[in-house]
């Protein structure tokens, strides 16, 4: 399986996790560009449904990246946010394209809700 433009380091991490538990970890290659993915979920941000920890050491960098997206130097955190929000929006145990995650817990929660 090819991972497109990803570095050998990222490919190694992906394969290492998949080897640990292939049913739990997977990768889905994104189809759209980062700006297009973020455009699918702006309402969640605009309505104030995103809460960030005030004292997080990473918060200033994250906010700077959001403020300058898509023309800023960095965009990976914004892209991760958009993909996570798309996943939440879908409310399915399977993440949106481009997300590499562990979803066993979410799958179990969904199954538990279906039984109720």
User: What structural class do the secondary elements suggest?
Assistant: mainly alpha
Helix tally equals: 6
Fraction of residues in helix: 40-55%
Q: Show unreliable segments.
A: 1-5, 100-105
SSE pattern? HEHHHHEH
Give the N-terminus to C-terminus distance in angstroms: 39 Å
Q: Averaged pLDDT, please?
A: 75
The total count of strands amounts to 2
Instruction: Please describe the biggest sheet, giving its number of strands, its sense, and whether it closes into a barrel.
Output: 2 strands, antiparallel
By oligomeric state, this entry counts as single chain
Q: Give the strand order, joined by hyphens, for the main sheet.
A: 1-2
Shape summary: globular
Radius of gyration: 16 Å
Strand content: 5-15%
The total domain count is 1
Structural overview:
The chain is mainly alpha-helical and 116 residues long. It has one domain. Helices cover 53% and strands 5% of the residues. The protein has six helices and two strands. It has a two-stranded antiparallel ribbon with strand order 1-2. The longest helix is centred in the C-terminal third of the chain and has 15 residues. The N and C termini lie far apart (39 Å).
Quick structural summary:
This protein is mainly α and 116 residues long. Helices cover 53% and strands 5% of the residues.
């Amino acid at each position: 399986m090819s991972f497109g433009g990803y570095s050998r380091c990222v490919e190694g991490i992906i394969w290492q996790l998949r080897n640990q538990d292939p049913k739990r970890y997977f990768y889905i290659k994104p189809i759209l560009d980062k700006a297009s993915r973020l455009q699918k979920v702006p309402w969640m941000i605009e309505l104030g449904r995103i809460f960030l920890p005030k004292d997080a050491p990473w918060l200033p960098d994250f906010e700077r990246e959001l403020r300058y997206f898509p023309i800023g130097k960095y965009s990976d955190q914004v892209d991760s946010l958009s993909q996570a929000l798309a996943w939440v929006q879908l409310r399915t145990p399977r993440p949106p394209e481009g997300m590499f995650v562990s979803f066993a817990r979410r799958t179990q929660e969904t199954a538990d809700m279906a039984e109720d």
